[in-house]
């Protein structure tokens, strides 16, 4: 079976990608330094422990496994932290990405799938973001991801083909609960709500209730992680068919306020979500919704699990399991 190198394969999205690749007939080779990933999340192919700052380690895994393509998920990914420690983000994300892209090309591999983010757009409240929207990141995380997008464009004339996916609020878990979301510390809304429901932490703090929205809370576009990784497999096939390098936004186009997510979680879990209202969180945009017409029409992507109740049900099932 053809192998695919999955950097960050022990992380939340990477582990789901490994499952989707295995189901599609590929062998995923997870490459992860386990700084935030989980050894137990690697279930669908081998794990090679290694760091993207170590070029020799990348060369070695590419030589040993000879993958046909690289899927690059590994990155530091917290907006707030990236403003506290910008150097770490520029060093690990950008230098790590450069090492990987150079090693990929040196190994004669010409297919690269990159996990990018709507954080590359910066604060463009009220606009539905799409592939044409100008990118003006306002934090080091978004800046570091945009730098890798640019790198891929620069390497493209030298024979590297790529698909860049820009996505936003990824939620949910594998419907079979084989893998799921487990960050430490957890900062994302859906797992924090489920922890609050389970009594594993105190009340959920709603960050800001005085925004200019119908219920005063921020609006985001949530995509089911299984739908998201399906798009990555479709992106791989796109490149295997010899199609051109492309950027695709992955979202549903529907926005949910924080209060709407809380209400949906209460319905799915049959229990009240303990909440308290707090001040706004620095760096939060009011409304961020990501269009996906291009992915639907060109890639044939259908986000079939990305309804709010389904994402919450699948995340809840995972959180109720033993986890990793
Ligand atoms: N929120 C709360 N309380 C919490 C946590 C979050 O009210 O305890 C709110 C946030 O203010 C925001 C919404 O829930 O309005 C979603 O917050 P998340 O932290 O779950 O997600 P973000 O929208 O901040 O972050 C997402 C991705 C990042 C990505 C970023 C781009 O998770 O990886 O968008 O800005 F980089």
TrEMBL record:
One of the record's GO molecular function terms: UDP-glucose 4-epimerase activity
The keyword Plastid is assigned to this record: no
Catalytic function, reaction form: UDP-alpha-D-glucose = UDP-alpha-D-galactose
Origin superkingdom: Bacteria
Keyword Transport in annotation: no
Cofactors required: NAD(+)
Pfam hit, one: Epimerase
GO annotation, biological process: galactose catabolic process via UDP-galactose, Leloir pathway
Similarity annotation: Belongs to the NAD(P)-dependent epimerase/dehydratase family.
Subunit structure: Homodimer.
PANTHER family: UDP-ARABINOSE 4-EPIMERASE 1, UDP-GLUCOSE 4-EPIMERASE
Official protein name in the record: UDP-glucose 4-epimerase
Taxonomic source organism: Sulfitobacter faviae
Gene (UniProt): galE
